Amino acid sequence: MRASARYPARVPTRPTDPADGAHRPLAVSVVMPVRNEEHHLAESVGSVLAQDYAGEIEVVLAVAPSQDATEQVAEALARGDARVVVVGNPGGRTPDGLNLALARARHPVVARVDGHGALPADYLSTAVEVLQRTGAANVGGVALPEGRTPMQRAIATAMGSPLGMGGARFRVGGAEGEAETVFPGVFRREWIDRVGGFDPRYDRAQDWELNLRIRQAGGVVWFTPALRVTYRPRAGLRELARQFYSTGQWRRRLAREHQGALGPRFLAPPLTVLAVTLGAVGATAYRPLAVLPLGYAAAVALGGWWIARREPVAVRVRVPAALATMHLSWGTGFLVGLRGRSGAPAPSWPAPRPR
Q: Structural domains in the chain?
């Protein structure tokens, strides 16, 4: 086990997948790192508890200090249903929360779900069937961003398009088969244990990095369009810019530390930032360079209008701004990088709370 990816020892429990011919469905632990999810957490947990899955289900919420009532909502959910367990994540970081939830999780299948995601009723039954049919270490499907306000719907439209997020199958769909990474992931627990859990050094991209180690260890990561997860994207451009800037920074670090982590589509945003900057600055001395920022603006405006053509006008007019925010924030974050940050060390782990 890698020292940089260690996590607490799991809680010893009775076997939940006996090999005695009983043919019981595999029990599933759903792990959710949550922070500032007051408005979405009950819906997300409710979608897990309402699964049509025949096997045992538990939900482990790793709750970080929040600026809203997330902690109170989580505790109320745990009081209302014995299948919900709350563990503290005092440091607030996502990989720490995932590893703390894993330490408390009891079952041989682990599904990661975000606090602002919602699962269709057949999600776990489909995921476990695909795990067993393919022998994969991890399976996942398509992320379906869904907005409520015009700005959030515009962001969702941009995020669900190849023009916004590239051609990754977990963003835009595609044929079933092996993949580099999937969203958000339903794992065989044995594979998480084998590779050492989520690397606590990665504030972002920890799922991609974990899937990379699984593949390097000989495991299969499997995409299927039959799995679909609805989630709520950021509500405004400022929040979107922060999210994508940070993601770009962490993708730069991932590319630096892992060969094969940087495909051509990840170079498009930083190259776009460089081209737009060169054109904007250089046009004062050489006017033809203005074609670079103007051309980009025209492409985003026309492309955004096209991908949102079935949306109301209030959404359509906002999509170009969402696209530009995503491209330029991600690209700038990638170019800036983490400026020498070495990542957070593995934390000292508190004892899991009793069930």
A: 3-235 (3.90.550.10), 253-336 (no CATH)
